[in-house]
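Hello,

Our lab assistant flagged a job as stuck in the queue for most of the afternoon. It eventually completed. Since we weren't sure the result was trustworthy after the delay, we are filing this so someone can double-check. Below is the sequence as submitted and the structure that was eventually returned. Let us know if re-running is recommended.
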Amino acid sequence: MGQGMATNLIASGFQVTAYSRTRTREQETIEHISESLEKLIKENVVQPADIEGWESRFQYVPEVEALKDCEFILETVGESLELKKMIYQKLESVIGAEVVIASNTSGISISLLQEQLTRKERFAGMHWGEPAEISRYVEISRGKETNEQTIEMTVQVGEQCGKRPTVLNYDVPGLISNRLMYAMLREAIHLVETGVADVETVDRSFRNDMGWWATIAGPFRWMDLTGLPIYAEVIKGLFPELNNGTEVPNLMKEKVETKTKFYDYSKDSEEEWESVWSDFSHDIRKIVDKYEKRVKL
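-- returned structure --
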């Protein structure tokens, strides 16, 4: 995720300073950025002149202290409160008093993370989507003590990166997209665990239904377009039947414990899926851009 974010920032004209606790990722990151930028040029997302000499606008630093001159901080370390707390303490000891710190977290409360800071008002959530270098998605969340200047600055950064920022009215675990997605994931696993269908069949059904319309219409627009009354009737009978478990499903536990996946991949097929996903992301952006000219999305 961090590599994709760096690519997007560079392609958008920013000077990027990257810090990672794993120094060995430096060369890997540079290679990822270079390859991703080449693809953005190939897909006409950016022009060669826009990224000429990009290497001079990117540096990888070994210590948090080297971030002292940064004007905006994006944190995307692992989902650990203690780890983030340690990073924030180091950051606040070196950066300017007005510098915004934005966390890419989607699972930890922004208000809870905010408690770890001395200057709580300059902290916000800024959750990016994959692939970060091409996706329009970014959700911005305020904590209890986040000020409007911080939100405005974070929105501006998102817009300059070509995103369509979504701003939440208040902090909620999982934000919007993850709450919707995880409700779907829970039901998908439940259908497999109860024997309704296998993994491939559930995937196929989802892809050929919601996967068909969800890029252009959200759930409310879709209900408007296809008839609200019928949804109200279906809800009466269906909601009581939906899974509302609060524990990690056994099927998920099994996959995690055995270090297996829902599908069997050879190395080549997994790489091909990653390539297809990247190509599809570029193609779908072109389609959405086309229809944005006709309706406000």
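-- support follow-up --
The delay was a queue issue, not a problem with the job. The result is valid. Residues 181 and 296 are 23 Å apart (CA to CA). Strands lie at 16-19, 58-61, 72-75, 100-103, 123-128, 138-142, 166-167.
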